[in-house]
Amino acid sequence: MKPLALLSALFFTSLLASPTWGSELSLTDPDAPYADRSCPLTHQIRHKTSLPADCRCGTNRSNTGGIPVCQRPYEVARNMGIHLGEGPSFANYYNAHLTGGFIDYDSNELIASVQWGAGAESKGLVLAYNLADWSRRFISGDAEDEYGPHVIAEGPAFYTLKDIQPGKDGAWYGFSHEQAKGGGVLRIIRVDPTTGERSQVWQGRSADYGQCPSGRKTVRQPSQQYVQYTQEAFAVDPADGSFLISFNNLKMGGTGIARISPDGARCEFVTLSGPRDDGLKKGRGFDLRGPMLGLYLHNGKIYTHSAGEKTFYEIDPATGNRKALTRRAPKPPAWRHVVWDEQRKVFWVSGKMNSVTVTAYDPAINKYLVAHKTCGKKSAWDWFPLCMQGPMRINSLNYGPMWLNRNTGNLIFGQDSIGIVEFEPETGNSINRSF
Questions:
Q1: For 22-122, where are the alpha helices, taking DSSP H only?
Q2: Residue 369: beta bridge partners?
Q3: Which helix (H) or strand (E) holds 172?
Q4: N or C: fewer beta carbons within 10 Å in the chain?
């Protein structure tokens, strides 16, 4: 390379790698912790981020010279040994995954569920993230510290904890799965928010609790009397405190959604399709194809996705009628977590195995926004000028949970299995918050 060209290349590289000095910032707060790492491009400065760091530029995300709030959560926690936020951390637990939860606006906390371990040794943990300083506190379940494993609060074990949701009575309810022969055992566990103590409310396919019948003519073992519940869909109905879960097995009762009474004593069908020996149906409309992934209640309706054809459903629980909102998901698709965004009038949808896929479905125009590619001239939404960047761009969301913070308008994700990441849709910026 000629000396002049080499000098130019070195100068350009130094500009990319250096903090922004004497120029306009890409952050709204000049006193933000990482204001000296402002991003230099015009579109980043035009769409300033209100988050404390701008992770949209590669120099802040890179493994060499980057900053921890912008880098891959797993890399920072596991390989660098850095934890963000005060309090106990599960980031180094074996096979740990954030699975679900909710935002408690009264306490300004994100209440989350975690599963860790594997197989018959799977364990569950409930923890809280303070949304002001992103500190953590463990509340209930199995944990580890420098002295070894220990159990927080008394009660039955969670095993694989799939979700935690608030009940109408002020308690929290965990949805758990224990690996066992014949497909495992599903349970609903009541958690006292103050003490963390646990008690069992319901168990699937057990005569001791309310069960929905399979309608089978031939029953070779007692469990075949009941529908086969699945472990990827759970919700608590705030209207009456009942529990919604899905079931799927054409030989054992069809495909649909069941409602379990708050005391676990009764089960009734909300919607039901598919062949059954007794011919029973509940509701009309597009048949459910394959297990349901996620359940979300909004304006008296249930929203869910089918694992079979990736169809996005709206279900009327009063009649069981099913409407297919979309039968072809965008490329790449998302089909696990759903939340309604009242400000932007879209459903955010996330979750796809082996991919980071975050989409927004606008029912008014029947279009999808794909967060990492539908932006700028490709976007039909003025509020989404820039594509998703920062740690949310890393290919490791999978089925991690998603929440919308109605106080900030930002989305929060369980990213890279163990990280809590905040995403600002109006700027495309995302940062690590806690792990």
A1: 42-46, 58-61, 73-74
A2: 360
A3: strand 172-178
A4: N
Selection from 49, 137, 47 nearest residue 375 by Cα: 47
**What is d(CA 248, CA 49) in angstroms, rounded to the nearest whole number?**
44
Q: Could you give the C-alpha distances from 41 to 16, 60, 108, 202, 373, in angstroms and in order?
A: 10, 13, 35, 55, 18
Which among 122, 120, 114, 165 is positioned nearest to 140, based on CA atoms?
A: 114
Q: Write b or e for each residue in 161-184: b if 16 or more Cβ atoms lie within 10 A of its Cβ, otherwise e.
A: bbbbbbbeeebbbbbbbbeeeebb
CA 128/CA 108 separation, integer angstroms = 10
Find the length of the chain. Answer: 435
- Report yes or no: 84 and 433 within 8 Å, Cβ to Cβ: yes
Query: 């009628």: which residue's tokens?
Result: 321
Distances (CA, A) of 169 to 165, 191, 193, 362: 12, 11, 11, 34
Q: Of 89, 98, 67, nearest to 80 (Cα)?
A: 67
Q: What is the pLDDT of residues 75-106, one digit of tens each?
A: 999 999 999 999 999 999 999 999 999 999 99
Q: How far apart are CA 336 and CA 244, in angstroms?
A: 16
Q: Up-side HSE of residue 401: CA atoms within 13 Å toward CB? A: 28
CB-based contact 342:352 (threshold 8 Å): no
Residue 411: what residue type?
L
Percent of the chain residues topping a pLDDT of 90? 80
Please state the pTM of the whole predicted model. 0.93
Alpha carbon distance 435, 433 (integer Å): 7
Handedness of CA 187, 263, 129, 44 (dihedral sign): positive
Which pLDDT tens digit goes with each residue over 378-433? 778 899 999 999 999 876 777 899 999 999 999 999 999 999 999 999 999 999 99
How far separated are the first and last CA of the chain, in Å rounded?
45
The rounded distance, in Å, linking the Cα atoms of 38 and 55 is 9
